[in-house]
Structures are given as C-alpha cells and as structure tokens.
Specification:
single chain, 399 residues, alpha+beta, paralog of FGE (formylglycine-generating enzyme), 2 domains, four-stranded mixed beta sheet, three-stranded antiparallel beta sheet, 8 helices, binds fe (ii) ion
C-alpha cells in the first residue's frame, strides 16, 4: 500500500484503478456490460473515492487485483474480436492513455517512496553527451495553438486549435542542466527573497527548501542525488529534474531569464519560419524533427533510457529552430496557467481537465517515462506549481 501521502496513491489501489477505468469506459459505458466486481465503483472511482479513503478500503489483494485486471482485458479482447466502431474506439484510446499516465505516476512514486527502480525497463544507459548552451531565435507571428480534428485522439483541453499572436523570442536549445541549477544554489538563490514569487517564497519557507528535493549535498565537491533508493553523483549536463514550478521560476529570476509560454513552447517545437525568416510560417510539423514517429534516437520516451540523457544528446531530435529534446527526457514547465481554450466543452471523462483549470501550470513535451501516445507536442500536462515529485525540468527564454 505504501504510506499515506497527498502526492501518491496506494500502489495496490492505483493498479486496480487502472483496470477499473478500462472496464468502466470500454465495457460498461461503451458496451453496456455489467461490472465484474459489484462494489468496484466504491473502490476505484477516483471521482468518488476521496484520496485519504483509498488507504482504508476493502481492496482485493495483489493476486485479486491483477486477476481483475486480467479479467477486464479478456473481456476487452472478446469485445474487440467482434470489431469496434469509432465511438467505442475513443474509449479504448482514452483508457490506454489513462494507463500510460498511471505507469508514469508509478515511476515517480518509486522515486518518492525510495523503492527499487523499475525492472526490465530503461535498457539504454543514460547518454552523457555534454552541455548545449545558447539560444535560438524564433520569429513572431500567428501561431495555431492547440489541436485540430485531423490529429486523431486528442484531449478536451487541447480543443480546438486557435490563433495566438507571438512576438519574436529567443529560447534555449536545451533544458536547464544540473550544473546550471547548481550555480543558482551556490549563488544563494534559495536564500534570496527577490528571486522568488510570493507564493514561491511561502512554499520554500514551509518546506525549508535549500536545494532540489532529492539533492543530497556535495561529496568531494560533486553534487549527489538520491535516485530511487541509492545515492549517485549528479550528471552535470543532464537536465535538472524534480524541481517545482516555483524553483524553475526562481532560477529564471536569478538568471534574468523567463519560462516560455505554452504557445511559445509549441511554436519552438513544431513551428518553422517563412523563407525570409521574418515570421512564423503557416502549418506545423507532427513532431519537432518532422513527420516520422519517435524512435530512441529522436526522443527519450517509453523508457528508451533509464533516466534523463544529457541535454546535448539526441541531435536527431532538433526542431526546425534547433531546439533539442523538446519531446521526451523531462517534462518542461511553462509560464502558462492551465486554462480552458475558448469554447471548451468537457469530454465524457468530465474530471480529466475541468476540475483543475486555474490552479495548475502547463507542462509540455513528455519525459523518459511517458508513452509516445501521451507526449505529442500539443499535449498539455498540468500540475500545481509546488509539485517537485514529478518528472519535470524546464527550458527558458531570454527577457
Ligand atoms: Fe486515474
């Protein structure tokens, strides 16, 4: 079960919840079947079962939970053998992506709780390729922010693509590294009020934060960090990860930089300039590098590597503007509040986006534990700005 914490679910509950979500949407909602376990909504409906209650339920044991999951899958396979229409297909697409999100959550729960690393994943060693300093220039112009109907499965909060007007901006080629973040600590950044927003300073004081949460201090002059259950040296040129939005924002104020808005992030990732270079061209790439799907040399997704690779690695990932690793490796905090696009209408899973508007910041790009299904360039992830347990770093823009 694991300990009670606001930021994690009991692991046993979370696995059952994933199976329940599959069953609820693909078998009960889309196909009218009766539930396999009568009391299942009282156990696993995340909209109805309060967080603290999840530690105090009459859950099936480990074998029973995996048995339930296998039974749901068998019923789905039975159903799919008879074909599936577009309406039902939507709910399979939704349930698979929901499972992807919980797989990623279980990855950072392992980190939070000092459990063992995931086994049998992350076959590739984390690449050490060095730093990637410098900015690229992105021209201003009209940017179509969000997703359109031709893009296949999209979440309600991406609907629909609409024009945003961007001023020209400069954005880093790579994410902020551990070495660059350490310079902020060494400069007294965690003790200097002026670098922090009011809410950020309150957060810092309440936590007594002096450095990123898993950093363990220096050993022979080298920063170390806890990775799952062991301490190791921090790779200087890997992106900083497990930092809150508040810490990212404070780093920016110290460095005289700023976070990109989500529209800027998206334009830098999949936009390109007109032939004269003076403004953003119409249209977009499917992925930063082009139209081809992600592979391990283009994006550290789906546990291609067992953690973040250096920011200079994966040159094949470069966007038209030369931004590297926009997809995968670490999520990137943006300056943007998580808000509905104009005309927002909730999709059938009503609690996916709507309850969270206005209280969270948008992150983009996915991380090494994200699936390629999730980490599309237009996908809007969202967390409260205090969260330093998620797999997030950031890149910055010039003021
Ligand atoms: Fe869920």
């Amino acid at each position: 079960m694991g300990p009670y914490l606001n930021i994690v679910n009991p692991v046993l509950w979370e696995i059952g919840h994933v199976a329940w979500f599959h069953e609820y949407w693909t078998l009960r909602h889309a196909a009218g079947r009766a539930p396999l376990i009568e009391r299942c909504d009282r156990l696993w409906d995340s909209s109805a079962v309060a967080h603290a209650t999840r530690w105090h339920l009459d859950l099936p044991d480990r074998a029973g939970t995996f048995g339930y999951m296998a039974d749901v899958l068998a019923q789905q396979e039975d159903r799919l053998a008879h074909g599936v229409d577009d309406q039902a297909r939507y709910f399979y697409d939704l349930a698979i992506r929901h499972e992807d999100m919980h797989v990623e959550a279980l990855t950072y729960v392992r980190q939070t709780l000092s459990y063992a690393p995931p086994q049998g994943l992350g076959a590739g060693q984390r690449l050490r390729a060095g730093a990637l300093p410098g900015d690229v220039a992105v021209p201003g112009g009209r940017w179509r922010l969000g997703s359109s109907a031709e893009e296949g499965f999209v979440f309600d909060n991406e609907k629909w693509a609409h024009d945003a007007v961007l001023a020209p901006f400069r954005i880093t080629r790579g994410a902020v590294t551990n070495e660059a973040f350490a310079a902020f600590i060494d400069a007294g950044g965690y003790r200097t009020r002026e670098f922090w927003s009011d809410a950020g300073w309150t957060w810092r004081e309440q936590r007594g934060a002096e450095r990123p949460v898993y950093w363990q201090g220096k050993r022979d002059g080298v920063w170390t960090t806890r990775r799952y259950r062991v301490d190791e040296e921090l790779a200087p040129h890997a992106p900083v990860v497990f930092v809150s939005w508040f810490e990212a924002d404070a780093w920016c104020r110290w460095a005289k930089r700023r976070l990109p808005t989500e529209a800027e992030w998206e334009a830098a990732a999949i936009g390109r300039s007109t032939a004269d270079g003076n403004r953003l061209a119409d249209g977009r790439r499917r992925w930063p590098w082009g139209e081809e799907p992600p592979t391990p040399d283009r994006a550290n997704l789906d546990f291609a590597f067992d953690g973040p690779v250096d920011v200079a690695a994966l040159p094949e990932s470069d966007s038209a503007f030369g931004c590297r690793q926009m997809i995968g490796n670490v999520w990137e905090w943006t300056a943007s509040d998580f808000l509905p696009f104009a005309g927002f209408v909730a999709d059938p899973y009503k609690d996916y986006s709507q309850p969270w508007f206005g209280t969270r910041k948008v992150l983009r790009g996915g991380c090494w534990a994200s699936s390629a299904r999730i980490a599309r360039p237009a996908y809007r992830n969202f967390f409260t700005p205090d969260r330093n347990d998620v797999l997030a770093g950031f890149r910055t823009c010039a003021l």
